[in-house]
Structure formats: structure tokens, C-alpha cells
Specification:
By secondary structure, the chain is mainly α. The protein has a single domain, classed as Ferritin, core subunit, four-helix bundle (Ferritin), CATH 1.20.1260. It contains nine helices and no strands. The longest helix has 29 residues. It is globular.
């Protein structure tokens, strides 16, 4: 199997792992019990997909690294997640807008992968499983986006600020990647993503910014300072007790 597929799977797996960690930070901190449970469940869905992807990536790499080694024993420069996933949660509206952008991307990617011909079979099977969960993530975040965007003046302001802050980071999701013909190139997904996200924003009376700065680097291991802090928490127990088992 080719090196490009390892990098490809690592990027998808890291997106899920870091998103799970960020959403997990809301546990016992959401504004209502039902939402506390919902965000925790979405985090677990993301973590489950991350495990499948990182396990398969490790097997392709052939260097003896399993899902735990890839999650806990890499430094920030070795991670390939998009910058959008690692940004701090901010307020609830900020978290919801990020989830909308990411889940719309993941849902489309999983759908296309599960149905495409010639895609790596195991990756297609992982996508087929993840697409059901991702569809829920998208629906959940879309409902909250509309509810808050078209809500009070204060909720609208916060959602507008979140869209303005996070929209520039979405460009990185659609960087073209070498796949060796065994996976869907993310560059082909932007039109479909826009057709999903823009109607939600319109219903929420929100308008994405036009032009401006488009940050990138996460896919190459160039991250914000926020990822290092996140990994310090994520990896601390494993690094403090290497090789420990329950």
C-alpha cells in the first residue's frame, strides 16, 4: 500500500481525534443537560472514527505504531489535523459553528467515499459506518445554528462573530491531496459543502465573509499554539505511565 494513503488517513483520523478532544471539554459544562449529553455523544462518535482510521493508518505505515502510539506519542508537528479542529471552543455558538463546518465536510466526504468506485475497501467501510453518525452531527449543528442565528439580538451577534472568525479556516479542508486513486480528493468537495452550509446560514440570517486571510498549515504539521496545549492534556497520562495497562 502507498504512503499517500497513510498520510490521507492520518489527516482524517487526526481531524476526528482533535475534534473529539475539543467537544469533550464541554462535558458537564453545556448550558443544559440534554446538550451536555449530545456533545459528549458526538465526541465519542468522533473518537470511534479516529480509532478506526488511526489503526488502519498504522497498519499501512508498517512501523509498529498502533492507534495509541499515533494518538499519544506524536508531537504537534507530527499531527495532520486541520487548524479548524484545534481552535479553542469559545462560547457555545462558536462550538456549534465549527461543528457545522466540520460535520458538513465529513458527512460529504464519507458519503462520497462509501459510494465511490475504486476507493480503498477498508477506508470505504470506515466511511460507510461513520456517515450515519456524521449525518446526525450535521443535523444537530444545523438546528442549533438556525435557532441561535435567527434568535435574539445577542445570540445572532455571537453566531455572526463565530462565522466571521471560523469561515477563513474552512479553506484548508479543501486542499488537494495525492491519493493514488484510492480515496476522494478533498478539493472536489467544496461545491457540495457550500451547497450544504450556505442554506443553513441563510436560514439563520447569517452571511459568510468574502475574501480575506485563509490560514493553512495543519495538513503539513504547522499548527497554532493551541494544539500543543491540547496535546499536553490529551497525552499526559499515557506519557507519564508508558506501557501501563489496566
Amino acid at each position: 500500500m502507498s504512503e499517500p494513503l497513510f498520510e490521507y488517513l492520518l489527516r482524517r483520523g487526526d481531524d476526528c481525534l482533535i475534534t473529539a478532544q475539543r467537544l469533550g471539554e464541554w462535558y458537564a459544562g453545556a448550558h443544559e443537560m440534554e446538550e451536555d449529553v449530545a456533545l459528549a455523544n458526538i465526541a465519542l462518535d468522533q473518537l470511534g472514527t479516529a480509532r478506526l482510521l488511526l489503526t488502519y493508518a498504522g497498519e499501512i505505515e508498517g512501523a509498529g505504531r498502533d492507534e495509541d502510539a499515533l494518538a499519544y506519542l506524536r508531537d504537534d508537528r507530527e499531527f495532520r489535523n486541520c487548524l479548524l479542529a484545534e481552535l479553542p471552543n469559545g462560547d457555545f455558538g462558536h462550538t456549534i459553528v465549527r461543528l457545522l463546518f466540520l460535520s458538513a465536510y465529513q458527512s460529504l466526504l464519507y458519503d462520497r467515499t462509501a459510494e465511490a468506485d475504486g476507493v480503498d475497501e477498508r477506508w470505504a467501510a470506515i466511511a460507510a459506518k461513520a456517515r450515519k453518525e456524521s449525518a446526525y452531527h450535521l443535523d444537530h449543528s444545523a438546528q442549533w445554528t438556525v435557532r441561535l442565528g435567527d434568535g435574539t439580538d445577542e445570540s445572532h451577534r455571537r453566531m455572526r462573530d463565530a462565522v466571521d472568525a471560523l469561515w477563513p479556516y474552512t479553506g484548508e479542508l479543501f486542499e488537494s491531496e495525492t491519493t493514488g486513486g484510492r480515496a476522494i480528493d478533498p478539493a472536489t468537495l467544496r461545491t457540495g459543502w457550500l451547497s450544504t452550509v450556505e442554506p443553513v446560514l441563510a436560514e439563520a440570517t447569517l452571511t459568510p465573509p468574502v475574501g480575506g486571510w485563509t490560514p493553512e498549515g495543519g495538513r503539513r504539521g504547522v499548527h497554532t499554539e493551541h494544539l500543543g496545549l491540547l496535546l499536553a492534556e490529551l497525552q499526559s497520562l499515557h506519557r507519564a505511565h508508558p506501557g501501563a495497562t489496566w
